[in-house]
Design a protein that fits this description.
Oligomer: single chain
Strand content: 35-45%
Order of helices and strands: EEEEEEEEEEEEEEEEEEEE
Number of helices: 0
Strand order of the largest sheet: 3-4-5-6
Largest sheet: 4 strands, antiparallel
Helix content: under 10%
Structural class: mainly beta
Number of strands: 20
């Protein structure tokens, strides 16, 4: 990552009306809540609601050097203060060699969360996927591997991670994987105890291996421990179409869906997924940007 001028991590809240629980939040737009002001860059910020009016925040931290960036997390209370029970300037997830970046978070369904990141600790050119569980008290879960669970350490690069809770304290994780020539879609299931589900293949279940690239876009739970994954797919031409597939909690793809995914739109031009929601009946609702009316592809 190119080096940028050092920047502190700042958080602000927008209030539609006065609220006693948020009275401590700075109201001056030139003075926001400092989350981390340690030396070096704090970048690539993610935020996740904690279910109690506050939030967990994750970022890539270059306090040593950005070539050795690490993942840090912090909790901010609904009152507008950094949680005093957490380490000042953030809890480090992993301080292994090279850059740990691009943290993605999901609730554990209780009072903590899991975080997954790209990690090139074994090779500088092909980052893999690692994850950890953070407890409500502001500590890494001691039941998990201390520097993170290697969800996928296969050859090639794994990136664009997506996560959704499984409803039982675990996580379903999907990603784009270039262990073959074109990017394919893989997924894994991790239990709340920090173990990769043995019913699922090591280094991930292949979801789609159609020709050309598949770019991971969205994932939602199906309400039964599985998930629906949707992606932008280039198998038919140089333009993207929308496809989706259902993953079962037992560790396989739903055999009632087409192999390599159900085509949701094959109109001319690009279809690029914008959002997806569970429909409450095991399926999903999707919306996408559509260029079928254009004379040339975007």
């Amino acid at each position: 990552m190119p080096h940028r001028r050092a920047a502190a991590l700042i958080l602000c809240t927008t209030l539609s009306s006065a609220h006693p629980a948020r009275a401590a939040w700075p109201s001056d737009p030139t003075r926001n809540l400092p989350v981390c002001t340690f030396a070096g860059d704090q970048e690539l910020v993610q935020i996740l609601a904690d279910g109690h009016g506050g939030a967990w925040i994750a970022w890539g931290d270059g306090r040593v050097a950005f070539s050795q960036a690490d993942i840090y997390v912090q909790k901010v209370l609904a009152s507008g203060a950094v949680d005093p029970g957490w380490p000042a300037d953030g809890l480090v997830m992993c301080s292994d060699l090279r850059q740990q970046l691009n943290g993605v978070m999901a609730s554990d369904g209780s009072s903590g969360f899991v975080i997954a990141w790209t990690d090139p600790r074994t090779t500088s050119t092909n980052p893999n996927i690692y994850m950890h569980h953070v407890l409500a008290a502001g500590a890494r879960d001691p039941a998990w591997q201390s520097t993170g669970l290697g969800v996928c350490t296969a050859a090639g690069e794994q990136f664009f991670r997506l996560m959704v809770p499984d409803g039982a304290g675990g996580i379903l994780l999907a990603w784009e994987d270039d262990r073959t020539a074109a990017g394919d879609i893989y997924a894994a299931h991790v239990s709340g105890s920090g173990v990769i589900d043995p019913a699922w293949p090591v280094n991930g279940l292949v979801v789609c291996t159609a020709a050309a690239a598949q770019n991971v876009a969205r994932i939602v739970g199906d309400g039964s421990g599985g998930a629906v994954i949707a992606w932008d797919d280039f198998r038919n031409s140089t333009t993207a179409d929308v496809h989706a597939r259902h993953l079962l909690a037992i560790g396989g793809v739903d055999a009632t869906w087409p192999v390599n995914g159900q085509a949701l739109c094959l109109a001319a031009g690009d279809q690029i997924i914008g959002g997806m929601l569970p429909d409450g009946s095991g399926g999903a609702l999707l919306a996408w940007q559509d260029a079928r009316a254009r004379t040339t592809a975007r």
